[in-house]
């Protein structure tokens, strides 16, 4: 019996130019979270043309494309995100965004194209035994009530069962074509806190008759830095950042209110709960100590992204087969950014993967960022091989 042959990068070399054309089209026509009408239509039409059973409007503008080969009954899911960011592009590229103030500054155009490339190759070869569900997700950048949450709420895993799910994000600063894997917590939970301090306004010349929210807020900014330093185990990681501070409108007026907004990040559920409890307690006691009061709006964002051991080891092995161990980083360092793929991993086992976008390249969410087209065939070959290996015929 001959050994099964799985996809190689060389199998997709002829597809590089068509894939680049697809990616440039998506890049040139970015759509923000919840607005991915044309992008989802473009994706669905491509998939239908390749013979997939396509379901549109899953959790909003989400698209799920299913393809079955063989009879095993096994299933696997692969996800790409489609939305852009409210950033005015400054790349000067021939295919730069035609929509002012909207840009694919995080590489979702590349993630979508990579999965489309794998979709076309899988449809062409059908070298697997089971069903693959390709999940094209909207609204990853939303921060809350995201595309992943909406697709799950719309019955994603009941309608399209997945034994495991995999996703990928490019990573500037790491060599092109280098894959990164980490079992366990990879990306942080991200919560947002809005604090409104209620003081008593007055004349700047008579501060003793007022309760100054600017002074209280300034003191609170410093006090909040003790939350991590004195409440979180030094072997754990957490971040509390005060990103905005708004108060007042004139130099000779003590305002009635001051508003602070915080970004809070953590890598475990226990630390996340500790941070919320300590921030709430500190804000309340601190403001009351000055005779003021505070309203706290604590908004829980994406949870910690936790890759499962077996699926991470499996995906890492596929990458080593495809590009060689010298182009694989494992374990990859934890990332303080957050990602709504975490919601999928709360439902089914899986792995979220990083793919180097090149050294010396602009970082994510930068007006000069661009996805590296050299990754299109590498990424597409990786997804193809991963599906072939996960649904390998000899495993039936």
Automatic annotation (TrEMBL):
Tell me which residues make up the Peptidase M20 dimerisation domain: 192-289
Q: Please name the GO terms of the biological process aspect recorded for this protein, alphabetically.
A: diaminopimelate biosynthetic process
Q: Which coenzyme or cofactor does it need?
A: Mn(2+)
Entry-linked Gene3D superfamilies: 3.30.70.360, Zn peptidases
* UniProt keyword Manganese, yes or no: yes
**What are the alphabetically sorted keywords of the record?**
Hydrolase, Manganese, Metal-binding
Instruction: Please share the entry's free-text remark on the cofactor.
Output: The Mn(2+) ion enhances activity.
Which residues does Mn(2+) bind? Answer: 106, 108, 141, 169, 365
The Gene Ontology terms for molecular function here are: metal ion binding; N-acetyldiaminopimelate deacetylase activity
A Pfam family reported for this protein in Swiss-Prot or TrEMBL: Peptidase_M20
Protein name (Swiss-Prot/TrEMBL): Amidohydrolase
Species name = Pandoraea cepalis
